[in-house]
Amino acid sequence: MADRKRKRKRQAAAAKTAARRDFQPPPAPSGRDAMARGYARAEERNAKIRDELEPLQPGERPKVLLAAIAWTGLLAVGTVVNAILADGDDAGATRFSNGLMTLLFVVAMVYSWKLRYWALMGTQTVLAIAMVVGIIALLGITKLWLLPLLFLHVGISGYLFFRMVKVLARVQKAEREEREGRA
């Protein structure tokens, strides 16, 4: 009886060894196939999210859009103050560049209020640049009392930048539905 048990154990061990030796893992997909599958999954997920989005209704202004417009207005006021307080040899150039930036901010604000996609993209670009400029200013800060203000500046700009993505998608969907309705 004990011999039979030993024989079975030896046979089972031999079968396992043979199975391991004969096992061929499935061929690994090439890099392009894996990438194509990844893109397909991502596009499927994006399509699902786009379908769930509600387009903006006429006259609807999300709170994040109002906050972004107000923040852009504060940035415009800051550039005007900077232009007024400019002094030294390059004061004229500073005033001119700040005047152009203020004009850009005002155009972005007005047309963002009108829900123009290009203006919303411009507002988002202004927010991104404000965030980067704030981070660069943090690197060269010389007055410690400005530190919390710069962190607040970077935080607000970054938060509004990322929250504007959904607003952009909703505006784009509303424009797409309007075009399809007219066609």
Automatic annotation (TrEMBL):
Signal peptide: none
Compositionally biased tracts (Basic residues): 1-11
Claim: Cytoplasm is one of the keywords in the record: no
Keyword Transmembrane helix in record: yes
Region (Disordered): 1-39
Residues passing through the membrane, by range: 64-86, 92-111, 118-139, 145-162
Keywords: Membrane, Transmembrane, Transmembrane helix
Protein name (Swiss-Prot/TrEMBL): DUF4233 domain-containing protein
Lineage per the UniProt record: Bacteria, Bacillati, Actinomycetota, Thermoleophilia, Solirubrobacterales
